[in-house]
Design brief:
2 domains, 8 helices, Immunoglobulin-like, alpha/beta
Amino acid sequence: MMMTAAEPGRFGAAFDWLGVERAWTRTRGSSEVLIAIVDEGVQVDHPLLGPNIERDLAHYPLSADACEIPGTHAAGVAAGRHSDVESFSGVAPGCRILPVRFAARAGAQALDLAHAIEYAVEMGACIINLSHSADAGSADVRRAIQYAGTRNTLVVCSAVADAGASPSEDDVPNFLRVLPVDEDCRPLTNYSAGSAHLAAPGFARVPHWRGRGHSALHGPELAAPYVSGCAALVKALNPGWGYHEIKEHLLASGSPQPHLAGYCHGGQMLNVAHAVLGPLELAEGAHPLTWSSLNDAVLRWRLRYRAALCVNAVALYRAHGNDYWRELAFARASTLKMDVPAASLRRSCGVLRLACRESNFHTDDIELTIR
């Protein structure tokens, strides 16, 4: 079904589209996950950003003045501070932001783009959000992105109208291009067919530059930070994953939008809720269960989407008062049901969840009584 404009929720229409608040029921990110905002500057003392900024005074000694505006907006969308009072948050408010300033103009006292990417990698960033205005097609930048790949870092950038300006998939498999769309789920401008991997909103609530609060904004540069924030949430859940697993999972968990098929691979729209909650979902109508310890039981589920990183499902049970999960049974995720043998059931009350063996994704917990 095609996505359409909706009444803004607490944090804006885009958050409702993407299911960000549903994803927060599982995680809001981790301070161990660092998102680098490689742009021409970020207002590091903004009230909606400051607490999440990774301070690096050695690299960031000078103000970039108005050049800070796009980077400030990107940082706010990806990992701005959660504030119910301001009705504002980034997608991953629990993650940290590393501002890395670059400049393309002559005489500017900042790193060039290639060195900025390398610097972000050396500082420990696992996600790099690249400026929309960056020229990612040059040979030195391509080599820098390749270097990021050797350190398992995902580089995200909004797609540009000229697909030839971006490096190819074969050269930089850790590079993810994002198609910006408007409130009617249409591309914001004319993009070359197949030039993007994934679509995301090109509108957001962003921090006011040199002021308090936030404002609504439209622009192609806003799409990539949604994906960067979502990638950070997935990384927080699966710390061992590198760029390959994160990228593959973001693409697999997206919502198909057939009218976007000519613009991005598979016509997939970013779906933060699916990416974070995972592919498994207990069957509709699931309610507190009662099983007998004398008879086999059957557990049913459905797949939100199919993912290579979820092949086997396992039923885990934790009795009330215990701190550990016990495996009751396992099955192929594609079978959509599991026979739980009576031999593994002991009389008790607790909670049951269905989990992926290949990742840290699992369903919501459900109350279970074994009589």
